[in-house]
Fold:
Amino acid sequence: MVNNKSEQLDAVFHALADPTRRAMIARLAQAPCGITELAAPFDMTLAAISKHIKVLEGAGLVVRNIQGRNHTCQLDTRPMLGGIEWLRHYEQFWNQRLDALTAALLAEDAAADQANGN
Amino acid sequence: MVNNKSEQLDAVFHALADPTRRAMIARLAQAPCGITELAAPFDMTLAAISKHIKVLEGAGLVVRNIQGRNHTCQLDTRPMLGGIEWLRHYEQFWNQRLDALTAALLAEDAAADQANGN
DNA sequence: ATTATATTTAACCAAATGGTTGACAATAGC
DNA sequence: GCTATTGTCAACCATTTGGTTAAATATAAT
Structure:
């Protein structure tokens, strides 16, 4: 379980920093589903899938409902809000400085291209 | 350097999944600054700081400008856009299902609280 | 009851992560 | 030319990560 806000962000961003887990989230956004079905698209053992799900659960992004031998996973997007808010905090920064930065970097790229003979 | 979109997301989310690096980004959002100044708040070797900066650079979040022995780091928020878009994709999901999910989870919490005697 | 299905767990492995120390490189200032 | 400062690099270390296999658990189905 995650304690403070920073650890929550750690957990959420870390959970999202893996393509398998992002794909799982995308799948769960369609509808809740069981482990085997969730595992189907991936060339990976069920044991590995189990671990990925546990990471998602640890970040609070997935809620598991056990009925007999069938585990149903459901997406809970609320922990993403912390992440999106953190990121959104920088939209202001973009608006303020993006133009100047873009110009500078484009100039840099142009110089690099010239150096590369492009 | 990052190749495709998925690897870009991997790199950005991974870069953000560490409190030191998030703090660095927050600092750089105020103004560009040198390595030593950037390192000041952290109880950590310059070598460790150097590695963190390299992770941020690898994700494209920081651009370095070298003048003599002084390296100036500048925030580039553009790679965050990929992350924020990925996350934003689920806002729709929230709006659609948040109510039902919240209700279900609150009921669950209430049941747990009752079980805990709260 | 036996068998098949769904899933986790434990033990292991290689690679990546986050940190250290110590040596090095380059530049600024005296 | 020294010396102090800024920063990286290489080697090392413990821990975490992402995967495997093999065994265990639990339930469903026949």
